[in-house]
């Protein structure tokens, strides 16, 4: 069998970004919208705030009446009233006057700033002003958060706690989001045994079902772990068909390379209506990775090696799932948390493939230092002991000790 015609990581990201995907939309209550992807733009139906508001307790004033005022040279204003938090002021403040106001209360017409109570003294019905204010000091303006008609959030944005705050401010109690996807996990291999089994020589506990499930659950994706299957074509095909029935995406692991018992490619090609989109990536670890489309559903074949399967999930499957869920700009923000560090030993890398080196981070004097954890992709500990991934681009032959690098944080 001929080995894969490998795709580069940038080719695969491009492929993901041009896939035609039919997505379903649903409405969810605001409190359940976190983590979801917006399916429509959100516009402000009104200015927010609706009216200028005080941001400090004190006195609403005209700033020009306070110009030049100080502790030693105070200005004096006549106290002409009080505005409560839920009151609409129905008067206009005149020059030489002030009114008592609380944080959040509406500013009367004529006032343009708020003197903090700490810089004042009440003397009869006069207020001694001990500070010069500038216009708009200690107030928020009408529409300072959002202007009526402004597009505040865009379809394709992932909703986090900050977006929830904006949606609540805008009065959106029901949010249009893309439907979440469902992902099934199938491990393959004659050598696999259940986690609670004592393996005999030649056997290994099924680890990938659990790491992939954990990775998906951290993204709040609904998962099903299917029973692992032996290296038999019919068994694998049946399990895939069962999973495809229910899931949007199926993650297979093992059997994706080119050995005699590596059946995944063959089985995927035999599934009715399936189209293999790629087989093989210029990626290490993770070269024997493949993707097939069956109607509107997708099947990933991931390498069996425990570390490879997790890294392929992080750098390939997860960006794909984000695209599938309708998220925009995935490829300009593949990894949210990065840190600069200094590499403490040389690392070589093969030109023409992307390497993801596992690194440990430590603090030495004022610098963060990245130490590569070398080891094979079949060992769980290279990832387990790592604090981050150091990507080495496919046009690079390695990095010398002492260079500053960017590490993708794993926690
Ligand atoms: N002639 C070549 N052979 C291999 C190449 C190559 O380029 N040419 N690539 C190697 C690379 S890189 C990887 S990665 C592996 C991946 O192979 P498969 O996806 O076919 O995986 P398996 O052979 O089924 O398993 C590999 C290894 O991982 C263990 N494994 C599998 N599934 C699980 C699981 N669910 N939990 C724990 N461990 C699992 C399995 O026992 C094997 O030890 O191919 C190389 N070969
Ligand atoms: O994909 Mo393999 O993962 O390089 O060991």
TrEMBL record:
MoaB/Mog domain: residues covered: 184-323
A GO cellular-component term linked to this record: cytosol
Q: Which organism is it from?
A: Desulfonauticus submarinus
GO terms in the biological process aspect are: Mo-molybdopterin cofactor biosynthetic process
Reaction(s) the record says it catalyses: adenylyl-molybdopterin + molybdate = Mo-molybdopterin + AMP + H(+)
| Name this protein carries in UniProt | Molybdopterin molybdenumtransferase
Enzyme class, spelled out: transferase
The pathway is: Cofactor biosynthesis; molybdopterin biosynthesis
- Please name the PANTHER family in this protein's record: GEPHYRIN (PTHR10192:SF5), MOLYBDOPTERIN BIOSYNTHESIS PROTEIN (PTHR10192)
**Extent of the signal sequence:** none
Judging by the UniProt lineage, the source's domain of life is: Bacteria
Q: Which UniProt keywords apply?
A: Magnesium, Metal-binding, Molybdenum, Molybdenum cofactor biosynthesis, Transferase
Q: Name one GO molecular function term.
A: metal ion binding
State the similarity comment: Belongs to the MoeA family.
User: Which cofactors, by name?
Assistant: Mg(2+)
Enzyme Commission number(s) from the entry: 2.10.1.1
What's this chain's function? Catalyzes the insertion of molybdate into adenylated molybdopterin with the concomitant release of AMP.
């Amino acid at each position: 069998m001929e080995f894969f015609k490998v795709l580069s990581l940038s080719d695969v990201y491009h492929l993901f970004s041009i896939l035609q995907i039919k997505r379903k939309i649903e409405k969810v209550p605001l409190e359940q919208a976190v983590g979801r992807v917006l399916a429509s733009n959100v516009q402000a139906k009104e200015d927010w705030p609706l009216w200028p508001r005080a941001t400090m307790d004190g006195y609403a004033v005209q700033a020009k009446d306070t110009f030049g005022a100080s502790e030693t040279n105070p200005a004096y204003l006549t106290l002409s009233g009080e505005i409560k938090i839920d009151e609409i002021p129905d008067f206009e403040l005149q020059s030489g006057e002030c009114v008592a106001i609380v944080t959040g209360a509406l500013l009367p017409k004529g006032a343009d700033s708020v003197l903090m109570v700490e810089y004042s003294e009440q003397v009869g019905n006069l207020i001694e002003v001990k500070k010069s204010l500038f216009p708009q000091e200690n107030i928020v303006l009408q529409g300072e958060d959002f202007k009526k008609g402004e597009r505040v959030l865009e379809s394709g944005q992932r909703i986090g706690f900050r977006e929830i705050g904006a949606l609540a401010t805008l009065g959106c109690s029901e949010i249009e989001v893309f439907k979440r996807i469902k992902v099934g996990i199938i491990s393959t291999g004659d050598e696999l045994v259940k986690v609670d089994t004592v393996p005999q020589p030649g056997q290994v506990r099924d680890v990938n079902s659990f790491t992939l499930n954990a990775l998906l659950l951290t993204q709040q994706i609904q998962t099903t772990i299917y029973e692992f299957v032996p290296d038999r074509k019919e068994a694998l095909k049946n399990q895939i068909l069962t999973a495809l029935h229910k899931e949007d995406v199926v993650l297979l692991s093992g059997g994706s390379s080119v050995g005699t018992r590596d059946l995944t490619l063959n089985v995927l090609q035999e599934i009715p209506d399936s189209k293999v989109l790629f087989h093989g990536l210029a990626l290490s670890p993770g070269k024997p990775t493949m993707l097939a489309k069956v109607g509107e559903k997708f099947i990933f074949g991931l390498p069996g090696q425990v570390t490879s399967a997790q890294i392929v999930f992080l750098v390939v499957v997860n960006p794909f799932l984000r695209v599938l869920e309708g998220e925009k700009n995935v490829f300009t923000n593949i990894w949210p948390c990065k840190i600069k560090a200094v590499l403490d030993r040389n690392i070589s890398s093969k030109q023409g493939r992307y390497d993801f080196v596992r690194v440990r981070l430590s603090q030495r004097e004022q610098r963060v230092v990245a130490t590569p954890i070398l080891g094979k992709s079949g060992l769980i500990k290279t990832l387990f002991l790592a604090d981050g991934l150091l990507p080495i681009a496919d046009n690079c032959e390695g990095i010398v000790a002492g260079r500053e690098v960017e590490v993708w944080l794993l926690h």
